[in-house]
Design brief:
The chain has 412 residues and is an alpha+beta fold. 42% of the residues lie in helices and 20% in strands.
Amino acid sequence: MGWILRLVQTGIDGQSRSADVMEINRADALGDISSLGLTSPEAKQLLARVQQEVVAAQAHEHAVLRPECGICRRRCHVKDWRLHQIATLFGGVTVRLPRFLCAVCGRVHGRSPETLRRHALDVGEQLRNAAAVNPASAASAITVTLDSTFIRSCHDSERHLEVRVGNAETDTGGRQVFGAVARAGTDIEALIRRNLETVGRTTDTELSAFTDGCPGLRSILADAGIAKPPILDWFHIAMRLQHAKQAASGLSTDTPVRMQAKTVIVDEVERLRWRIWHGKAKNARLTLDRIRKVMHAFKGERSCRTMGVPSRKLWTALHEINGYLSSQSSWLVNYAKRYRAGLRVGTAVTEGTANFLVNRRMNKSQQMRWSRRGADLLLQVRCAIYNGSLGSGFGHLFEPVANPDLQLVKAA
């Protein structure tokens, strides 16, 4: 006995199209229990063929729609058809997709990944020197945050590429993101100036900036016209304090002396955080001296199997904080006062920007390596999409909204 499995496609107009998917043959007598029903290879083959037919039909319906030319806005004609391999959930599927040709300007519009990549890089090249958009109103105050991250390089001579990303945010909620790969041809200073003009910078606008303390980033901000010295952001200070706090909490308490010393150290680390937060970082030396007086209690402390010696980790973290604060003392402020006044105290928003703008696409779990030019041009496109400058409502993520309830609705 045998069966022919047929897949029937029904359309809106009532017409149907059928295709024989698979033929199954079995002996008339059920002498072997293994011949009962479908075998595992037959089931996989059936699923793969059904997937092939369904995907091919969907691709054909989509391909018959003729797009408009992005240059002259005329309808394109089919130039030729090419086979493309698509990876689906149930295996690879081969489909025929068209390439379109504009009869007016002669531009070829393809659906292949290489064509899309070339179009994306062409748009990124145009965005490098795009003019600033005139805002509807001037901004009284603008905060600029600038940070850097790294992505993998495809060049043999270097392992990573430095990517500089930042935000320009007004006091009314207007926001622009920007970014550029170092030494890729994009003028980061001109990019910052253009974004400041887009959010409403005037001669009377008060500018403030935040960095992680890198001298190179401070030089970029100064060349971009931000004369006021940038503030050392609280985010990087808090990370170093958190490392010291975790190391202090891991100290051993196997003797009464060590238990008392740990209590003193935990209190002093928390007091160090309070001093820096309230603009009294000059008194941080007092905390280090008090901790040094009781550190002898942990002499000969055994190391944990996975964490090492806790007292050594604590002392290393404290020395790192001391060196960081000593080199960045000129850019420390009273963070508590700024926070109570409703002002920004760090670059946490820029850390989030680097995450969704760069790391999520180019770095995390992607296993991708980038050329300097390709990464920079793609970054220009991603910034334009998130800023909404590629068309009305196209990928627009940031928009000044005065009503906080409306912001919650937009976020949902």
